[in-house]
Amino acid sequence: MSPTLKRILIVDDAATVRMYLRSILEGAGYAVEEAINGIEALEKALTLPFDLYLVDVIMPKQDGYGFLRELRRQDIPQAPAVMITTEAESRDQARAFESGANSYMVKPIKPEELLAHCRLLLNAPGDSP
Amino acid sequence: MPIVKLVQAKTVESDKRSHPRDLAGLMASLDAPDATARRWAARDLAPFTEAVPALVKRLRIETDTTVREAIFMTLTELGDANIVQSLIKCLHGEEVERRNAAIEVMKHLPDAVAPFMPGLLVDPAPNVRILAVSVLESLRHPDVEKWLIEVISEDSQVNVCATAVDILAEVGTEAAITQLEALKRRFPDEPYILFAADLALQRIGRT
Amino acid sequence: MVDETRITTENFNKFREFFYRKTGIQFEDSKRYFVDKRLIERIEATDSGNFRGYFTLLRFQSGGEELQALTNIMTVNETYFFREEYQFKCLVNSLLPEIVKKKPVDSTLRIWSIPSSSGEEPYSIALYLTEYWPDIAHWDVELIASDIDTRILKEARTGKYSKRSVQHLPADLLRRHFKRTQDGEYQISDDFRQTVEFSRVNLSEPADTRHYRGFDVIFCRNLLIYFDDLSRQKVADALYDALNPGGYICLGHAESMSRITSLFRVRKFPEAIVYQKPEAT
Q1: Do A110 and B103 touch (CB under 8 A)?
Q2: N or C terminus: fewer CB in 10 A for chain C?
Q3: Which B positions 24-63 lie with beta carbon below 8 A of chain C?
Q4: Among B160, B135, B148, B150, CA closest to B200
Q5: CA pair distance C173, C158, nearest whole angstrom
């Protein structure tokens, strides 16, 4: 129905994780780009439009929190972000939201859970069709 | 005729460094109020192993990322067992930035890190084990595969195993096949583990 | 040996991910032949026997020399006038206008080109400034060009180039600023040769870089990619010190600070991505 695919940027330093997330998302009809850390992600976010960011916390050179803080300062159309982490404690969640995340997932990621997050954030009321 | 308004470069100016560049002067500068002075001090301390405790102490309180990066770089160059112990303390800390930087330094110090690795891989905190496995990603050490195989055979925490499988997709050999298959049986309901183990097995293949 | 060295699809994929992580360079499937050919060349040159042996060398070699050797042949590093011209456009349309807004009127702008190689890049900058930056009339610019190689610096000072090297220059610009030499080459005019200051610098040597300070823009293209992790972090650190707060650094098109350091801010301009040293903190 929609002529253009929703575009998602996966930000994770682990190649296998990126491939895994990509296979789930492409299977569900999303267009996917990848970045291996926060700096590369910011370079891509400044160059290409995205509808959603999936962001790992632990990455070399710039972590997920740092990336989101930088991203939120940029003068570009902003998109929602899901923080993906191995840490389930409440302080980590608080930190994710403070940095600019819109939701939060704990690894290991299940496909149906991931897609539910994407649908929720991509079809939020007020989101352009 | 174009007006070339480019001027010939004048003698380039030298930077200003207030304290003398000996050990005592540099150590004093490490606590200077100006971040640039601290950063230069941290960097110029690279030849002094005696400076390790001071650098580590500064690292714990330093908030400026440019200074922290310089301290980490100097520690990488000095790289010895004492430094690794301090870095391991960072892994147990809460601050993500410092933990990530500690991992990066450890990746560069295979010989100094190796004796600590078996202990780190069985640390009671799963997060520390994940970080220790992350160090193996780029560690240039012959035991990397052996450690990873131990992790996927013994660690009960799925995310620790998940991190290890990702690296096995790069460094795994036939030696890992049995344990990769066992891992799939151990976590049959974890789609990521199945995906990652299959990828690693496929990569190992036959050459 | 009857068995020929062969790169399987799995080998290719594994290598591609590793190389991307290390260098930021991504090879599409269409580059398979290009990549395989060079891998086989290095497998043979290093006597590794097969892909697996070679990959182990790449991944575990303590000095990382083989990764550097491989990066060298995976990247084509040819230099010519107006190469990656979008960055010069970015310089005159975006960077300099922003810089001069904050500069005291009588101050001098300082630009550093390193490595200068045989001079194509610094002279391109000089040409671009004089031709396409209207404000050149109001500002003094110091243009310093450095390289580690004294032999190539001598060539740069002479400023003689082949037809191939100047082929991307607009004809009118070539006519006005170059003269044909007897041996059919093109020599850049004395005005330019005298205004670009050439010097020998080893970026990995703090004693060399200590005197290079106060730059507004640095061009450091296609150099960092050839260093190992730690050395390029040190070089990035030296470049950081060489810049004024708010100063910019332009890397080659395949390069990114993302693998090197978080010292710089990523800035997006209409023409290019550029890295900026943060204003005083």
Answers
A1: no
A2: N
A3: 35, 43
A4: B148
A5: 19
Please say whether the beta carbons of C237 and C230 come within 8 A.
Answer: no
Contact across the interface for B199 and A16, Cβ inside 8 Å: yes
**Closest CB to A62 among C20, C24, C262:** C262
Contacts of B126 in chain A (CB under 8 A): 86
User: In this structure, what DSSP letter does residue C95 have?
Assistant: I
Report domain extents, chain A.
7-122
Interface test with B, best of C48, C59, C196 (most B CBs within 10 A): C59
Nearest chain A residue to B131 by CA distance is A58
pTM score:
0.88
Name the region of A4 (left: φ>0; alpha: ψ -120 to 50; beta: rest): beta
Size of interface A-C (CB pairs under 8 A): 39
Q: Are A85 and A113 in contact (CB under 8 A)?
A: no
Note the residue count of chain B. 207
Q: How is residue C29 annotated by DSSP?
A: G
3-state secondary structure of A16: helix
Q: Measure the CA angle with vertex A50, ends A45 and A54; round to 5°.
A: 85
Instruction: Say whether A80 sits in a helix, a strand or coil.
Output: coil
Which residue from B97, B134, B165 is facing A66, i.e. has the nearest CB?
A: B97
Name every chain B residue with its beta carbon within 8 A of the beta carbon of A69: none
pLDDT digits (tens, 9 = 90+) for B23-46: 999 999 999 999 989 999 999 998
Cα B201 to Cα B47, B130, B156, B198, C217: the distances in Å are: 45, 21, 21, 5, 49
Q: What top-level class would CATH report for the domain A7-122?
A: alpha beta
CB A114 within 8 A of CB A28: no
Q: Which residue on chain A is closest to B203 by alpha carbon?
A: A16
Give the integer Cα–Cα distance in Å for B94 and A91: 10
The first and second tokens of residue B32, run together, are 């200077």
pLDDT (tens, 9 = 90+) of chain C, 281 residues, equals 445 678 999 999 999 999 998 888 889 999 999 999 999 999 999 999 999 999 999 999 988 889 988 988 888 677 899 999 999 999 999 999 999 999 988 789 999 999 999 999 999 999 999 999 999 988 999 999 999 999 999 999 999 999 999 999 999 999 999 999 999 999 999 999 998 999 999 998 888 898 899 999 999 998 998 888 888 899 999 999 999 999 999 999 888 999 899 999 999 999 999 999 998 75
What residues of chain B lie within 8 A of the CB of C263, using their CB? Answer: 65-66, 69
* Inter-chain CB proximity A108 and B134 less than 8 Å: no
Q: Radius of gyration of chain C from Cα atoms?
A: 21
Q: What's the rounded Cα separation, in Å, for the pair B158 and B183?
A: 10
Other C-beta atoms lying within 10 Å of the C-beta of residue C177: 22
- Counted across chains B and C, CB pairs separated by less than 8 A come out at 107
Question: Quick check: C108 and B7 CB within 8 A?
Answer: yes
C17 and B CB contact within 8 Å: yes
